[in-house]
Amino acid sequence: MLNILVCIKQVIDPEMPASAFNINTSSKKVEEPEGIPPVINGFCENAVEAALRIKDNNDASITILSIGNKFVTEVMKKPLSMGADNLILIDDPKFENLDAVSTAHVLKAAIKKIGNFDLILCGRQASDWDNALVPLGLSEMLDVPCITIAQKVEIIDQGVIVQRALSNGYEVIESSLPALVTVTNELGDPRYPNLKGIMSASRKIPTIWNSNDLNFDLESLTAKLKLIDLQIPITDKQCEIIKGDDDQEIGRNLAIKLREAKLI
Amino acid sequence: MANILIFGEASGEEISSINYELLSAANKLKVNIDDQIIVAILGVNNSKKYDELLSYGAQTVCLVKDDLLNRSNTDAFLNASKQVVDKFKPQIILFAKTDLGRDIAPRLAFKLGVPVAQDCIDLEIDKDSQKIKVTRPVYGGSAIAKFIFENVDIQIAIVRPKIFEPILPIENTSGELIELNVELDKESIRTKFIEEVLKESEGIPLESAKVVVAGGRGLGDAKNFDSLKELAKILGGAVGASRAVCDAGWLDHEYQIGLTGKTITPDLYITVGISGASQHMAGCSNSKNIVAINKDANANIFSLANYGVVGDWNTILPAFIEAVRELN
Ligand SMILES: Cc1cc2nc3c(=O)[nH]c(=O)nc-3n(C[C@H](O)[C@H](O)[C@H](O)COP(=O)(O)OP(=O)(O)OC[C@H]3O[C@@H](n4cnc5c(N)ncnc54)[C@H](O)[C@@H]3O)c2cc1C
Ligand SMILES: Nc1ncnc2c1ncn2[C@@H]1O[C@H](COP(=O)(O)O)[C@@H](O)[C@H]1O
């Protein structure tokens, strides 16, 4: 049986209204918006979907793994209701604001504890810090091949074949297993949980570990990229609204305006 | 003395603009006159043209030729770049956030055990610590963060394309072009390239177009892009789209502008039915002029546009296109 691990991250909803996005500049943190629950990072949900499509056609077991703090269990259980088998939450206040290097180290420790894996799927990047670093680091540390930005992932005998989205098309790359693949939204929307999935997920209890369970010393990591400032960008643009008696005239006036500004 | 190592990029006939942008970023980080800028280009086949970079602030241009260095062999690029680092022992390494750079730089950083600053839009040397301070958008562009390197000997930054003005030639410079042989073991390449399916862009490529006309979910349907294509044609520009459009399958993802799509900096960017989400604006906010046609007066796009029309594109666009055609 194929053992698939999917690494997912809980993030602040990136589609929340701009007015709800606030920063505490002294603690240099984005404030959790009131009344807007966190979500699973979108690309991580695409990674879960990639795992499920593999499971649709192969004998596979899917374990979901996440590191963080203040998990909203209902949110994090969504992959279970979509059809994943197990959920491991590594929940510790120490892991609240990990940088990419530390996250990769903790993930590695967790994966060592889990033991066997054939394929690790990650999102291409997390929508909080937009880093796109953790999976690449993890693959280096686990010494497994890494294929990024997959729009299609298929298992072939003993290996994985991936369509990798490029800015001007895609390329097809093959790798033996174990391997790590990061997934992009071009893969397609994650499936909706069905009733059966929701029922079975409601009976499942996530495995919860903390830093002690991993035997992991965060302090040993000294080299750092330290956050020194976090601000909402100020825009000082003045938008000139084009007016007119009716839409025909407004459309025309816009053209005239752009002509006057020598833009067309 | 510090060595600043740029991993440049080889592509096509001309030297890619990204090399000049990286040289411009590197130049900002030169604090002592004897600081050296080295441009390493991996996977070149024709080396002649690259000595040109010596007139643009590079003291050394280091070319690495090897059949294994083609785009999809990330393992080969990684191993080769490690050997280039071993040779030049740089304190600073710059990559561009391109298909190649964003794949290699993080892995090199982890191999070297040093942190890497992703997607930088500004870099400067902090006077006190002499380390690099980087500025980068985070949370999809909703916030701007500054970071500083601490306790590291090697600082790696990945630079967002089209942010730094390409460097201009520098007079009276001298330097050398060298070719470096690297040892690449076929066995160490763990992935296998099967094929590449590239899409020919119709007309002007999005990234270099002076005028871009883009549509969003507000267009409602794939066929409604016909009028955008028509407008782009009249203006000699290219068509782009928001992610919502590409996710819906109305256009291929090569048309996507934004954080995870293309970065564009046209003179004129006309958006139709695009709300202006931060992740979209991440790819176009450096356009010289932005025009927004949107029926929602409160849409975020109006806080970033120079000219706006609040209304339904169904009636506004045809009149606009007709007037543009007449005026042209
Ligand atoms: C990690 C991450 C990365 C992302 N990367 C990107 C990216 O690279 N590029 C990108 O674009 N997005 C990206 N997004 C998505 C982004 O957050 C928005 O969801 C997306 O840009 C919205 O697209 P839109 O403006 O077309 O659609 P909407 O936000 O739905 O806006 C449609 C607009 O059309 C207007 N409209 C509707 N009908 C009409 C009409 N008849 N006439 C005039 N106006 C009309 C509406 O008022 C509305 O403002 C990303 C999101 C995440 C989380
Ligand atoms: N805290 C975390 N727990 C589990 N997986 C993570 C975590 N952080 C990042 N990842 C994985 O790494 C991907 C890229 O994240 P990042 O490098 O932070 O942009 C995510 O989509 C996840 O798959």
The CATH architecture designation of the largest domain in chain B is: 3-Layer(aba) Sandwich
Distance between the termini of chain B: 56 Å
Identify the CATH homologous superfamily of the largest domain in chain A.
Answer: HUPs
Q: Which pair of chains forms the biggest interface, and how many residues does each contribute?
A: A-B, 83 and 93 residues
Distance, first to last CA of chain A:
62 Å
Q: Which whole number gives the mean pLDDT of chain A?
A: 95
Q: How does the major sheet of chain A shape up?
A: 9 strands, mixed
In summary, what is this structure?
Chain A is of the alpha/beta class and 264 residues long. Chain A has eight helices and 15 strands.
List the SSEs and their pairings.
The complex is a heterodimer of chains A (264) and B (328).
Chain A: E1 2-7, E2 10-11, E3 23-24, E4 29-30, E5 39-40, H1 42-57, E6 60-68, H2 73-76, H3 78-82, E7 86-91, H4 100-114, E8 119-123, H5 134-142, E9 146-156, E10 159-166, E11 169-176, E12 179-183, H6 195-203, E13 207-209, H7 211-214, E14 224-231, E15 240-241, H8 247-260
Parallel strand pairs in A: 1-6, 1-8, 6-7, 7-13, 8-12, 9-12
Antiparallel strand pairs in A: 2-5, 3-4, 9-10, 10-11
Helix pairs in contact in A: 4-5
Chain B: E1 3-7, H1 17-28, E2 36-42, E3 60-64, H2 74-88, E4 92-96, H3 101-112, E5 116-120, E6 122-125, E7 132-138, E8 143-150, E9 155-159, E10 176-180, E11 191-198, E12 211-215, H4 225-234, E13 238-241, H5 243-247, E14 268-272, H6 278-281, E15 289-294, E16 307-310, H7 313-327
Parallel strand pairs in B: 1-2, 1-4, 2-3, 3-10, 4-9, 5-9, 12-13, 12-14, 14-15, 15-16
Antiparallel strand pairs in B: 6-7, 7-8
Helix pairs in contact in B: 2-3, 4-7
The complex binds flavin-adenine dinucleotide and adenosine monophosphate (AMP).
